[in-house]
Amino acid sequence: MLSNVRIIRFSKELTHTIQLHPRFFGAQLRESLKKRLYDEVEGTCSGLFGYIIAVIEIVSIGKGVLQTSSGYAEFLITYKAIVFKPFKGQVVEGVVTTVNRMGFFADVGPLQVFVSAHLIPGFLQFDANANPPAYAGETQDMQLIKIEKGESLRIRILGTRVDATEIFAIGTIKEDYLGPQQEW
Amino acid sequence: MSDRDDDLDREDDEEEREEGEEDDEDLDGDDDDEDDDDDDDEAEEDVRRPKSKKRKRRKPKGSIFIDDSADVVDSEESDDDEENEDYLVNDRELDNFDYSAERDALDDRRKHLEMDMRRRQNEDMDAEAIAENFKKRYSGRAKASSFRHAGDNVASRMLMPSINDPKLWLVRCRQGHEKTLVMTLWRKYMEAEDQSKINIKSIFTRENLPGYIYIEAREKKQVDFAIENVSGIYAQAVKVIPVEDMVACLRIKKKEINLKEGGWVRVKKGKYGGDLGKIIEILDGGASVRVKLVPRLDTSAKDDLSARVGDKRKTPGSNLSVPPQKLFNPEHLSKGQYSKISGGYQFQNEIFDLDGYLEKDFKLSTVEIDNVNPSLEEITRFGSSGTAVERSEDLDAIAAHAGGVGGPSVADLFQVGDNVEIFKGDLTGVTGRVLALDSENVTIMPKDAGGLGAIRVDPKDIKKRFDEGDHVKVINGIHVGETGLVIKVESNVAVVLSDATYKPIQVFIKDLRGRNESSAPVTQQSIYDIDDPVQISPSDVGIVIKVEANNNSISVLDQWGNVTKVPAQQILRKIDTKNSNMHTATDANRRTISPKDNVLVKDSGRRAVVIYIHRSFLFCKCREIMEHGGVFVTKPQNVENLSGTQNGGQTFSRPFAPIGGGGGRGGFGGGGRGRRDPLINATVTIVGGPYKGYLGIVKDMTASGARVELHTNSRTVTVNPEILKVHGSSGPSRPSFDQESSRYGGDGGRTPGYGSGSRTPRRSDGGITPNPYADGSRTPGWDSGNKTPYGAGMSGSRTPAREGWDSGSKTPARTLPDDDDDYAFNRGSSSNDPETPYNPNTPRYDGETSFNPETPSGYGMPQTPGSYPNMGSVAPTTNIPNTPGGNPATPYNPTTPYNPTTPYAPGAMYNSGFEQANTQTQRLENWLTTDIEVIIKPYRGNSYKSGAFDSKNGVIRAVETPTLARVVMLTEGRTVESVPIEFLQLTKLEKKDRVKVLGGPRKGQEGELIAIDLEGLVKFSSGVFEPIDMRFLAKIVS
């Protein structure tokens, strides 16, 4: 199910500065730099570009500049990375992680989206007795729909809150073609 | 068209208008006027008929007075104004009638002359000017007719009272009955047989001057006559108002009293002081109101009703404890305590309606009518009885009210950049953005209103507008200061998902402000922020879960899981999270957890982030938990660390303090700054200098050297760390390896398989550089504030995070492939294929789990592990740099002599994994030696001679090969067997046993076991005492 969840991703050229300790100055220097880069940027989130999901290519590693005060060398690395920034109005696909009375949380890759009970179609009612808790109901064509943990669904992002280290979004499934999808 | 016709047409127009106005006048005018008008008309007709073919039915009497003074051009306008004034001065006109009728005739003639003159002038003007002229005239007229205000224009100044006018008398009366008395007097006047006798001009009263009425009359005796025999008026206190003050008496303060049924009031004092009430009835002509309140019933009254009823001697102190608001419920009372009345109940002399609300009468002065500002919560308390429509009407009313008089100023309500919607006037429905503000108007730039340009609107006509998904901040009400995302917008109320609690809150739209506005006000919030760890008392710490709106108190979740509301002043201090990042704990898998690590909470199965660690309490935050803002307290044993990418990795990347003078010390100083030194608490021997040969424990590391507490005399001396030789650990976290130190040196300080699980820890570049990655990763990471230290060998620790990513974790941690070579290779080849590095088949997580106990951080002293050769992963003696040791099976090389049981069993402390590690430590040594007692055990399912000798003790009499010993069994008739080493284990030692050292620098020496601790203290025959790892000791049997 997970593999069905697609994230709209963009590739973006970014730069990152690494200060390298002198002990790395050796044959493995480039490797060290690469590792540092992967460690330091992947999985991070910036307000401007969103989540940096993966570095796909290192475009260039600049010449190291020694810092006179510390002995560290500073390298400017230009790299290409897949970034994921959710936009208002964007339709994404996610997996439900938590369901409660107020709505449910879904993960869209690294992004957490909250869908409030206000933004769930009226025919889906919260069933507190269900285990796991779920929103359940029947569509007009008598199809039983259940939103519980692990369910994949399609969400439109209504708004985002961008913090320094994470992005949080609220979404809706109260529109046509949103919510759990038949073909899944 | 001739001038004449033109003129007539115009006059017709005017007449029509005037007629309309006269109709009004007729409605308003009283009987006196009618007579006047008739006379008036006759006079006019005489003058007009020859000129106007169309008969003028009436001429407004107003013009009688005006023409003298009015400017010709503005005649119509002035007419009108004067006409308005006329209503006020009708009585005066009565006196002047004869005079004015005559003048009117004269003036009318003159006016027509002037009109003709002006017409000629108009002809000379061009069309545009005429248009302008007309426009001016009519626009002025429209304004005048729609906005009748006495005080604003020039002409009204002429009407200021003079000494010739009737005087104003101030009369005392009964307070609260002013309005009824005015009506009484009016009725008296109307019913009087001879009205002229009373002959007062007007009566009025002022709201803000209770207990007085004003009477306008020429003489005092008229006043006296009017108030004679009217009860409630104190005739002796009649005063005349000075002429200059008369106008002030009539100046109407523009103060609307929003008193209507269904409106909201706030009780000013008493038991219900501050409570919101809903007006259900207006009594006494507006002097008092019947208000519906949520009762505050004294619950104790139920038990002791008789004592309470009629007990008026309540001490003032009893008011301090106001009973909570609770609806009256007759079911909670016995029948006798209350009585049922029509439409409700009576209880304790109070009346309750059927819904349980209290109905109480209040004087208007005891309730607040303006600035009630009811909050949503308060209104919802009344909501149960009202229908949804009613409720939304209420909300509308409140929202509108708050925007009106007495509400916050324009600048408070709106800010430049706010999105607003016009909801009143011609432009209703237009949305736009606020461009500018001044004291009265708001300039907005409409959206999608092609070419309309910026418009100025009244702030009362616009309201803020938010869309779903907007990030907003609450600027008013009980939720003030909270931020959140708008989930839903109803007419005046928005549902906002709070950022802090993830709970939906209802807020008036007027109380919201867009958070991304350009002019974000720097509101000084409390110094405590949500999720801050704070010290509540010397023993208790807590996490701030809510900062109250007034900033005065803070809700704190303490380490016992209790939520307390603490005044901000009582908080001892805010814990500096920079330092607290050093606090660590050990999770269920004995891995280090630090703040900001992602953990899996085992009992709930939730993922959470560690906020703060206090001793053995973890404060974690999980967004999925609703209560306490997602913060909860748990034990470290209840969580599993998922991150490893953050601080958790630091312990792994700790450099190894090179041991035995191997020459690798350099890495130590470079990286260890700011962290605890691994040498601390280590038992060391000083191998040089004046204290050479002394044994001690390192207490501290300072710039000048190591502070070593000597065993002999408990003195603490400072020694150069270079001349210290580590003996072994003083705690279970640190297996001893003193005997290994020489070998260590031979490795050039290289650390075999440090840090990670046993899978692939080995760096392939082996002994060339002593642990460059370990040190390097830490140091730059530390210094540059980078939270993600990395080390070549620590990849194992990240795997869980990787796992988390696969399952949809929020922030995927970058995970390293299994070993360096792989890593580099994958990376190098994958630049065009982003999927490769995420090869999900890498079973590192499993590997990590199974070998987890070997992670040194599991043993209690998280600061230091990793800085010693990790006994867990690979035995030092097996350290062959070229073997990456990628196969966990290799250590169990069956050909290697195997010594499965540690003679001394600290089993409670070492888990199986560690024991395994210990056996590995010894596995390659040629420990077989003579005269030591051994026990024969099965090994890997095989038993020596099919188990015939299992668990039998024996003594090694001779070592045939390094892996084969000739053992003389101590039982069974002293059989002699040749037993392979793997079936031999050492026996358990006791104090005072004669022991032989099997490994380390003192290998082969004999001594007496003096004490058993984690290490055994051995007194050698030379008289030297030395602690030796118990695993290296064997019992001597002679």
TrEMBL record, chain A:
Subcellular location: Nucleus
GO molecular function: single-stranded DNA binding; single-stranded RNA binding; translation initiation factor binding
Any GO BP: positive regulation of translational initiation
InterPro entries, sorted: NA-bd_OB-fold, RNA_pol_Rpb7-like_N_sf, Rpb7-like, Rpb7-like_N, S1_domain
Pfam families for the chain: S1, SHS2_Rpb7-N
Domain S1 motif as annotated: residue spans: 89-158
One of the record's GO cellular component terms: P-body
Domain of life: Eukaryota
Entry keywords, A to Z: DNA-directed RNA polymerase, Nucleus, Transcription
Chief location: nucleus
Matches recorded under PROSITE patterns: S1
Family per similarity comment: Belongs to the eukaryotic RPB7/RPC8 RNA polymerase subunit family.
PANTHER family listed in its UniProt record: DNA-DIRECTED RNA POLYMERASE II SUBUNIT RPB7, DNA-DIRECTED RNA POLYMERASE II, III
Stated name of the protein: DNA-directed RNA polymerase II subunit
Originating gene: RPB7
UniProtKB/TrEMBL annotation, chain B:
Cited InterPro entries: KOW, KOW_Spt5_1, KOW_Spt5_2, KOW_Spt5_3, KOW_Spt5_4, KOW_Spt5_5, KOW_Spt5_7, KOWx_Spt5
Compositional bias ranges of the Acidic residues kind: 1-45, 68-87
Keyword Repeat: yes
Keywords: Activator, Elongation factor, Nucleus, Phosphoprotein, Protein biosynthesis, Repeat, Repressor, Transcription, Transcription regulation
Claim: Ribonucleoprotein is one of the keywords in the record: no
Spans annotated as Disordered: 1-87, 304-326, 719-856
Domain NusG-like N-terminal span(s) in chain numbering: 165-253
Major subcellular location class: nucleus
Record field: compositional bias (Polar residues): 730-739, 827-842
Protein's name in the database: Transcription elongation factor SPT5
Protein source organism: Physocladia obscura
